[in-house]
Amino acid sequence: MIDKIFTPEIKAKADALVARYETKRASILMILRLVQDYHGYVSPEAEAAVAEYLELPQIDVHEVVTFYTLFHTKPRAKTEFHVCRTLACSLLGAGKIVKHLEKKLGVKEGEVTADGEFCFDQVECLGACEIAPMLQITEGEYVGDLTPAKIDSLMEDIKSGKMDPYKKKQKVSV
Amino acid sequence: MPKLTIDGIEVEVPAGTRIIEAAKKAGLDVPYYCYHPGLSVAGNCRMCLVEIEKMPKLQIACHMTAADGMVVKTQTEQVLKTRKHVLEFLLVNHPVDCPVCDQAGECWLQDYYMKHGLYTSRLQEDKVKKPKAVPLGPTVMLDAERCILCSRCIRFCDEVSKTSELGFINRGNHTEIAVAPGKELNNPYSGNTVDICPVGALTDRDFRFKIRVWYLKEADSVCNGCSRGCSIQAHYNLDRPHHAKGERIMRLKPRFNEKVNKWWMCDEGRYGYKYHDHNRIAQPVKRTEKKVSEVSWDSMLQEVARKILSSGQKTGIILSPQLSNEELYLARRLFCEELKLDKVFLLAPNPDGFQDDILIRADKNPNSKGAEFLGFGYNTEALEKFLDQCAQGGVEGLVVFGQNLSERLDGPKVQKALSKLAWTAFIGSNHNLMSESACYILPAATHFEKEGTFTNFEGIVQKFNKVLEPLDGARAEWEILASLAKALGIAMKAGSPEEIFLEMAGRLDPFRNQTYESSESEGSDIRSMAAPTIPSLQQYDNIL
Amino acid sequence: MKKLISRYFVPGKTFWVEEYQKDGGYEAARKVFETMTREAVIDEVKKSNLRGLGGAGFPCGMKWSFVPQTTGKPVYLAVNADEGEPGTFKDKYILHHAPHLLLEGILIAAFANNVHKAYVYIRGEYSAAAEILEKAVEEAREKGFLGKKVFGKDFDLEVVVHRGAGAYICGEETGLLESLEGKRAYPRLKPPFPAVVGLFGCPTVINNVETLSYLSFIINRGAEWYAGLGSPKNGGMRLLCVSGHVKNPGVYELPLGIPLRKVIYEHAGGMRGEYPLKAVVPGGLSASVLKADEIDVGMDFDQLRAIGSMAGSGGVMVLDESTCMVEALMVTMRFYAHESCGQCSPCREGTGWVDRILTRVVSGRGKQGDVDNLLDICSFMGGTTICALADGAAMPLRSYPTKFRQEFEDYIAKKRSNPELLSELFHGAETKRGGQKELTV
Asked: Are residues C312 and C85 in contact, defined by beta-carbon separation less than 8 angstroms?
């Protein structure tokens, strides 16, 4: 079971991460992130594997996975739009952006499009109020000063391959 | 030792004492949920906030340690207002399940609302929905909506049973108690989580919907499940026999005992009371080849006495470490000292059970140590030899106390031995193979139906009380032995267990210097929270 | 205006080690390691009046002086790069443009507190920042600024870049420690304080990214100079993050004590549209809101506290007259309800309850008495909890209905509602009575 989740490649990276910390438990956020990056989400099997790997009770892993927003227990879409909904973004029109995404993608918040390509949800402050309203693409780029038109062209760029949604590089407009 | 003042009362406590304990010592009641003296401090319920002079914010009494010269106030207006609001916060998402919740009547939310709340609810929103009636394991049922997230159960599983099955999932007011996916709450002490849960979030599956707690009566006792002898309390119901098919004992709870079991008891002991109201032997029964008939106690005792006298030295006695000190002493007096029989043995049913370093002992008998003090030890070899003797016809009659010989000794060998006997007598409370084949069956009381003392494996002598009257025609073994002695023409001072104990204490060293009362296991109700402060919620009889 | 940290904020550029050193980078650390004592460094920082710029504003030098060096346990440094306070985005800039500035600050703080292992806790969403910092750490190690025998001295220093996973409460210092130890970020009971019992039970210094980034300037140019840049007891400059209805939102490095009016109108370009200024949230979401006539206050910790607000994280959110304060409060309290860790009852239940009340109000079903209820609930969220998240929630909760009472009463009386905001909340679904859509994790 643990070998299915911790392939040799993942295990090598995991071992290196664990070595940086004073306790195995302390590395859990990094290990879960690693597992999620490779497998797409954290399944119950993954939780059990991480628990075995870090020598923790399984409930301790489950506690952590359900506490932090960035861990997903279900598969998501290839490209995720996380739209900020806190004060500055809300005042500057996040609502319009959310409505537009709903119309454009044809799904509600949290749902994945039929082709598995896109989903969107609302998140709390991403630390980019100066480019409000803004969204984060999966766990990568921040895109700000959004308008419905900008959303449309962003999706065009992603679909056409001009912008790589997997590229985790984050540019910040400063 | 620091001396501090709480509500004007000066109290001195050992260094490191938390204010909440100092307040108890001063006789004051600071309400709390998450605090438990047997667990680490969590400090999350905020119910115990009190005012401490020179500190700007209210402080939780369960965490702050007493300092010399500290001045604490637990009844100021701000403290009382804060308590009310904390209670209101806890009740904001709490489902009003009282009519269907087992905890009603012993629920700290109810109790504290009556004492510290009494506000009109101003909630107009929906409450958060969470899973209800989730079996966490074989013994515990979870209602996640009722949970106030005090974390007592989590801390228990981490620190006491050391099995770490429980944890918090999600965040904010969507937080719940849960087990890991695919796992369950299943450890030898799981029932304790129900005791310590202040509300109806964790309830006992065994007790579920059995009876309302205000119909229960309580009596202190000692568990007879193993040689630890945990202090317990039996909760019973006599007035409403339509509950639980007429069972009298409804549940067992542990009592706090500093020396023996602290606040806990194991599941096996906790749920091992069913034998008490099921499969009991009702009346004295005589069995011959031709028929089985109920007889009166007098005629039964007379006949058994005659048989013992006639068989003389060819009588065997097999005693049980389930018997009390008093009963074993009487047996020794009668069979060893007076009748001078040489075939008196102690049979231990299965002393090699599971044992851990928490409470559970491998010896599943409450009084092996008492038997040892009284001169009876386990000697399987001697017992085997005795069985051989029986098989060879060297024994005429056998009196067995309570046990099924085939459980510990070789089944066929036992059968062969028994078949060669002229008569057998079985003195016990529940039917088993032995009672099914004996000639004379004398119904005995369970230990809940009699008074006496057990000696636990550490030599601590503990008194257990008579919780109930013996069922039907059953009698306590000490009574049976005393009557048998009379029928045998032997006078013994055995008017009450106390009398027997005092004679024993006067003669035998391990029991010397013990009074019957001092051997009473000290123990207080572990549910010593709100209950003592609310006289109106004390039990009262069935008013219907 | 002087540019200390902000001179590195060149769009699209990261000052890697070569370029950073060219400009005098790592000279302050060298000076500290080669010529100063621990006590002298702490003293200098005390004299500089450097305050904690993550939000608490606690004097940095004084915090360092609480760390016991005689416990026999190692001392840790945890760098708070969680930057979760809404309205705040300055640390992102430092991490992107000047990671070595932070590392130099870490070096100085490590020397002063005898720290040999430092963790930088970066919020999980800052992927690029974490990558940049990892690379900078490698560069620094190659140059001998990190690792074994720093500056050739008998002093090792390891820096671990640790990534969070999405929880505002990880910005709370003990929540950060719990998260770093691999658990749910439940803040700890204090005392004991982290300086004495922190990471893995050892004494721990926790400092914000920006606070540490000013250290090299203090060492290079002197504490007195630094203190003089600011206002009494509030030394130096800070990176104010201006956002909202201003023409030029962004990061502005300004002296402590500068009047808020100047920040908005002289630096951030003033109001962006035709609506005049209505209100300002001066120190991150948790700061009490200021009315338009209160913006002459000096932006430092003491002056803002004196008028009932706080300097906090320096997140200045400017609201013009197009803003509905009721809806703004609803968005604000929704944040706290989502981010409450759930450990203690007043915060967990209070934030959730207030969120639902305001959702109901914003749905057009407010009732008379709602405002008084909100204010009463607020009184018992603050001052009763394990950490300050509830206090942070209580401040906007109190200040909005107090300062804009009439607007709240009108909104409720007229049963106003905002379809756009509602659609954002309910996505066109039937609005449930009172309650809000369940949050999915």
From this structure: yes
